[in-house]
Amino acid sequence: MFFFLFIFLFSLLPSHYYCAEVDQITLLQPLAQGQILVSPGHIFELGFFSPNNSAKKYVGIWHKDISQRKVVWVANREKPLAVADTSASLTVTSNGNLKLVDGKQKSIWSTNIASLVSSSNTSSVAAVLLDNGNFVVNDHLGAELWKSFDYPGDTVLPNMVLRDSKSGKGHYLSSWKAENDPSPGKFLLGLAPQTPSQGTVDFSYSLYDKPVSYIYISPEGTVRLRFSKNDGKWHDYWQTPKNPCDIYGACGPFGVCKASASPICKCLKGFVPKSSAEWSKGNWTRGCMRQTKLFCERQTNKSVSSRGKKVDDDGFWKMVLKIPDFHEFITALNAEETSNDCKLRCLNNCSCLAYAFVNNIGCLVWSKDLIDIQQFSASVGVDLYIRLARSELGEGKPIKLIGSLTAIVFVSILAAIVFGFYRRRANQKRQTQNFESTGMIKSSRDGLREYIGKHDPLELQIYDFDSILIATNNFSVANKLGQGGFGPVYKGMLQDGKEVAVKRLSSSSGQGIEEFKNEMLLIYNLQHKNLVRIMGCCVKEDEKLLIYEFMPNKSLDTFLFDTRKRAVLDWVTRFNIIHGVARGLLYLHHDSYVKVIHRDMKVSNILLDEKMNPKISDFGLARIVEGTQNLENTQKVVGTRGYMSPEYAMGGMFSEKSDVYSFGVLVLEIISSKKNTSFCLYDQQLGFLAYAWNLWNEGRGLELVDEILGDSYSSSEVLKCVHIGLLCVQDNAVDRPTMADIALMLNSEKDGPHPKLPLFTIQISAFHHQPHSENTNSSKKEASITMIEGR
Predict the structure, then answer these.
(1) CATH number for the domain including 492?
(2) Which residue among the candidates 314, 600, 659, 706 is catalytic per the annotation?
(3) Are 633 and 323 within 8 A, CB to CB?
(4) Which residue of 54, 58, 572, 698 shows the fewest CB atoms closer than 10 Å?
């Protein structure tokens, strides 16, 4: 009796006192308050909520079985309902749109899309919530008319795709204004349209061993990745920024951020805060303004001085900084021009506010407000020259030299010694730069001999083109060894019986001349048993040939990825190859007379001699960097998909850690005989790096070993190499070891730190400028692993 009385009384309660689950919203079945739309697998819910017991009400999506609720999407972010309005509902309208109406049937929010269904089919339109958290509207045939994934809030869910603005629909995450206010706040997170410079970029992620997760940007601008341990709570996995300077534009226009300083923001020299009151309170977002007007701005009725002349009333102040946003690349500069030419170009253009001349890139100028400037504690960054009125530069204080004649003589002698030392070093460097700055190699044989004569005529020979034709049997297909990114490679037999490999740089390649200069410049000066040796070159009209020592076993990929040949690579051979490549990279990064970043490390660029010893080849994309310089930037992202590090693929930033990343991929491929691009990142399959990490993390690292080896391998050596490979492919460059660290780990029992799981997937659709790849038939969707970093 009591039971029936309870049921009777419960049925009299208003609908908002209990919760009913529904599986779809239609014209005839709106979602009322007290009802919850549930995904088929009971993973997500959609319904009405009030954040932190506020007086406002919203429609949103959250995970069903996690009591620590995090709303991952909100429909009416900017138009809340009153909490007292209990008659609001979400429905499908007669034109097929979703609409949220209040108790008076006033529209609060709508999908507001042109209807693709006739009125007679509207009753078949349904809004459903999928198990991936996507809220979609389907027509009567099941086709999607609208989906919430196209309109993100502050959260990215696994496999949800963000696109850059070049795709036609820029997707950005926008933070909530506060924890109880989901309206758009101060911070945005998305893909910057200017990097990388090629094609359309999509971003998505997945945590393979933690499927219940999300990334969001907090009201304070912090980006967090969280996951659930099935305990009803969320746990932080990763977050950025790690310091306040990583927030984009933290100090506003013309403000410099230095995390180790207090306060962290200061104005550039010659600039003062726009609002001293706000600045003193720690609100730096409005930035700084120029204190003294530029001379060229005051001379409105006079023309700016002609090229080559000096403008006395404007000058430049040098600072070593992370370069600001919105630079322009001056492509008109030719190879002979220098930093001084870049300075004059900026000086002769009154709209130019700053310039930087970056090695191997060229002249960068800024004509917009300088924003997102960061200064590091160490002297790391780019030399940025900021335009100032001459009066802001100051005249400097005279230096008084007081001392005895003996002291003066001593200082003079010391200065002469130092000058002589640096002059010698400068002459060596100038020889390199003179060659590098040559726009075109002289096509005549005499011109090329003149260049080589200044260097080392005993080592590098100039071959006659006709002799190369005879050696390669007129570049016969039967003599072809392979196809590189910039042209084919042929086997040749010289008249003295010596076998050689001839790289024929393609005349149709826009980068062919650059590769020719790089290989001539680098390899002939680098001597190491694990680097391929160049013997000479040949230039005739459009033909550019490089002649190398012949490697009878061709490249590593011809064995590693061939089911019939890979048995030749026993574990001893594979381990020796890993050691040899590591030694070669260590030489390039640390032991050679210049520091070289290869930028295209992959199995096809590892050649094998008659004893299967490895030699690193193909230096066409390599770059020399200064010994004290840790990071370089390029506007042209080149390399091979799957081997490019995240910071290089996404932002053009390369360093020795970029080569370390590629080495890590290569090591894991050598162990497994699996191509890193052979793993699908969709259909519930793991990416190559995540697959390797999962096996290692679960104590099953030996399962990565190529099955053709059977049990004939050293378990300790394999596990050591797997561990090293995973450390090398860490998302953050700072988490990767150096080649010196790797050499130490390979030759001792030293263990490195515990590697983290490589997290994110970047898809690059290079419709216009495809990155250099050995596979000309590769899919337009390029994939690499990366992570979001605060700018």
Answers:
(1) 3.30.200.20
(2) 600
(3) yes
(4) 698
